[in-house]
Here is the input.
Amino acid sequence: MSFGLGHGNPLDPAPGVVAIDHTELPPLPDTIMDDPESGRLDPRSWFANPSNRFELEIGSGKGAFLVQQAELQPDTNFLGIEWAGEFAAYTADRIRRRRENAGTHTNVRVLNSDAAQFLQWRCPDGIIDVLHLYFSDPWPKTKHHKKRVIQHQTLFDIWRCLKPGGELRVVTDHDDLWAWDLAHFDHWASDPDAKPLEVARPKIPVPPARIAAFLDSRETKPYELVGFDKPESAGEGELVGTNFERKVRVEGRSFNAGVLRKIDNA
Here is the structure.
């Protein structure tokens, strides 16, 4: 399906410059099942200044958050991951034009991939400062719930990839998805205020055996659930400040937001 995002103009995602190309992310090696770490690479090396702070966005859509926030944080490297090819190309094209016209946004790269798979098989331990997950696809049908971003495996991989004290920042306008998220957070995060959110939780899959063993082995939960502080790019009364948020806010939808902060002690 084409969304016509280029309005009849060809999109130039600038492979190897803005969009990540196959030379930067080669296929997974044949050894991956015997050696799960054999496909790991450091995405910070994709940036001109790899020692900078590193933040990642899952589901970049048309790139509004990346475009806004990266300009305000020029010393932070931002990687946007978007599974829909045309949206990834559109976002990369937006970034390319800003680089060429204004010399800005040299701190943004775009990857067309499955973010959960990237975190599980590619991303090394302890490199991400903040992971942003804003208005992800709710996959409302029960048979599609396994496609939702928040799963036990993904929360484990995010925890592994975050730096100590790093954050997973979540915003959604979909109440059922938020209830799903909270049901998972109950396994993974403590509430420092000891005030669990009064939201009815749905039944969710049990953690896989390996992950259940990880959770059981810890003296504390892997995260703490804390309040959401909006990014600088968000305007008055906004949480994130994207066009999607502004659209659904006009429709009168409610919003849910929270932050999981990594606790690194066992």
User: Anything to note?
Assistant: The beta strands are 53-58, 76-82, 108-112, 128-134, 162-172, 189-190, 223-226, 256-262.
